Amino acid sequence: SPPQNGITRVIVTGAAGRTGRHVFSLLQENPFFHPVGLVRTERSAKKLLKSTGASLEQVVVEDVTLLAEGEDVSLSALANAEAMVICTSAVPIIVKRSVVKFLILKLLRRKAKAPEFRWKPGQCPEKVDYAGQLAQVN
């Protein structure tokens, strides 16, 4: 549907993340855009509301990984959007002991493997970055 009053409604997925929050804020500052942030958790929604001053109608809590699994997800709040900016991504968690091991070996001038990373359950790159984004576009 065409923008109402010349204002384009834009969905920003991953809006509470570092890049998503920046994109959301820039769109919010521009009078030609009405951004709606899609976030995974209530905690992320509160973070976005606090950091951007967005209204409640501008934030939707929905986990994109559930879209990828074919779960019944209601995205009616995202209806009538003219554009989408996908900023979702899997967030790695560094394995602290691997960093310690890496640093010790480097200090001893020995060959060291790169530090290791893991992901929260159900939040691996294949699920969030590939399947989740594919489901968002579809």
Characterise the protein shown here.
The protein has 138 residues and is of the alpha/beta class. 38% of the residues lie in helices and 17% in strands. It contains 5 helices and 6 strands. It has helices at 18-29, 42-52, 64-68, 96-107, 125-137; strands spanning 8-13, 33-39, 59-61, 83-86, 93-94, 117-118. It has a 4-stranded parallel β-sheet with strand order 3-2-1-4. The chain has a two-stranded antiparallel sheet with strand order 5-6. Helix 2 (42-52) links the parallel strand 2 (33-39) and strand 3.
Classification by helices and strands: alpha/beta
Proportion of strand residues: 15-25%
Terminal residue distance: 17 Å
**How many extended strands?**
6
The overall average pLDDT, rounded, is 86
Strand order of the largest sheet: 3-2-1-4
